Amino acid sequence: MQSKTPLVRLLLIIRPIFISVWSCTPKWLSSFLLRWFRYGDGYLSFGVRYLAVYRLAKSCGEKVIVFPGVYLKNINNLSIGTNVSIHEMTYINAYGGVKIGNDVAISHGVSMLSYDHDIYSNSSSFKDANPVIGRIEIGNNVWIGAGVRILKNVEIEKDCVISAGAVVTRSIKENSIAAGIPAKIIKSIKKT
Length: 192
Description:
By secondary structure, this protein is α/β, with parallel strands linked by helices. The chain has a single domain (about 5-190), classed as Hexapeptide repeat proteins (UDP N-Acetylglucosamine Acyltransferase, domain 1, 3 Solenoid), CATH 2.160.10.10. The chain has helices at about 5-20, 25-35, 45-55; strands at about 60, 65, 70-75, 80, 85, 90-95, 100, 105, 110-115, 115, 130-135, 135-140, 145, 150, 155, 160, 165-170, 175-180, 185-190. A seven-stranded mixed sheet has the order 2-5-8-13-16-18-19. It has a five-stranded parallel sheet with strand order 1-4-7-12-15, covered by helices on one side. Strands 3-6-9-14-17 form a five-stranded parallel sheet, with no helix packed on it. Strand 18 and strand 19 (about 185-190) form a beta hairpin. Helix 2 packs antiparallel against helix 3. The radius of gyration is 17 Å and the shape is globular. About 30% of the residues are buried. The model has no long low-confidence stretch (mean pLDDT about 90).
């Protein structure tokens, strides 16, 4: 894996030492620090967010960048691959399970919701209705544009681009560009 800067190359060399030490700390500390450093934009904040996500998530690869202002709910059901960037104002609720592959770019303002409310239940209000859960899976080499909404029971296969503002309510096949509300495949990506 090639790195863009000498600093990143250095961090990848010393990463195993930090990970092994951090893995011995209690999870509540990682939860606290993830909230405390949520809005920081310095190197320390980026490092702490990575270590916290690594400790709390179901799995987390190398070179995962969590930008300021990201909210990760039910993080214990979140799997993140290698070389992933999650940009500002993103909200991921992994209640039903969210799996993000390798080489994924998640632009700012994206929402991933792996559950919904059962509006047909006997509950007196929609807000208190039972949850209906479903997984979200993002394949390798996917670019999710700004302001995209991804709902439960969706798989975005590898090599896809989801255009800004799309609402993804059903799965997207590989090598596709999807756009719209609800998102539909508008073009195929032909690799040369």
